[in-house]
Amino acid sequence: MKIYSWNVNGLRACVRKGYLDWLDACEGDIVGLQEVRALPEQLSAKARNPEGWHTYFHPAERKGYSGVGLYARQPFDQVIDSLGEEAFDCEGRVQIATLGKLTLLNVYFPNGSGKNRDLSRIPYKLDFYSHLRDMLATRIARGERILVMGDFNTAHRPIDLARPTSNTKTSGFRPEEREELDRWLDQGWVDTFRAIRGDVEERYTWWSQRGDVRARNIGWRIDYVYASPAAMEFVVDARIHDMVMGSDHCPISVTLNPDILL
């Protein structure tokens, strides 16, 4: 069973760059998208309901902003779009899907930068991290099988970005943001890529669109699949698909023993 996560930086643009061809060829069972930036009715029929897939979208109230979407080979038992906080829900950042005994969260975590490239959104971002973590605390303690995947918008350790020294004051690598990821791991969550692949250097999931930094692999690893301990028992592989183009992010994936559903 293979699950992908991909920040597409605008699904309509990604479709024009070959998203549907990739979807046909990826051999995934579930694909979670972040930063869809479109209402469902703004998508083409093929993008909204491709043959062989069940689709679910949660757009932001603000047009052309944020939004998440799920594509699944078999229908989910349930999909919830709310964290119970209007300040978060209005931005279309979370889908909580259940399939058998697996709970899958498709999440577009906030960026800490404001409209003027300041740090004004960091308090909102940190509140989002802690609210979601607290919401899942009882469930992870009960031993539920949970995956949280998406664009976390934070590089956790120096190994997770090409130029850590020059970015310590930049949103996405500030101490207070990295500490939030520490709290997730302290609670028991597992970074699936590091657990499976170890401390592999120079593996990134996002590159600036300025200059030729992607060609030179000057990037950040800010997209993750976090697994609860109970879910981690079923993870057999984790990958970064950095050769896939179409967005400033690349897809990531986990492969699971399908018994995770049973």
TrEMBL record:
Pfam families: Exo_endo_phos. GO terms for biological process: base-excision repair. Mg(2+) binds at N7, E35, D151, N153, D248, H249. GO terms for molecular function: DNA-(apurinic or apyrimidinic site) endonuclease activity; double-stranded DNA 3'-5' DNA exonuclease activity; metal ion binding; phosphoric diester hydrolase activity. The record marks N153 as: Transition state stabilizer. The record marks H249 as: Interaction with DNA substrate. The active site is at Y108, D151, H249. Probably binds two magnesium or manganese ions per subunit. Its cofactor is Mg(2+); Mn(2+). It comes from the Bacteria. Residues 5-249 form the Endonuclease/exonuclease/phosphatase domain. The record marks D223 as: Important for catalytic activity. The keyword Repeat does not apply. Keywords: Hydrolase, Magnesium, Manganese, Metal-binding. Belongs to the DNA repair enzymes AP/ExoA family. This is Exodeoxyribonuclease III.
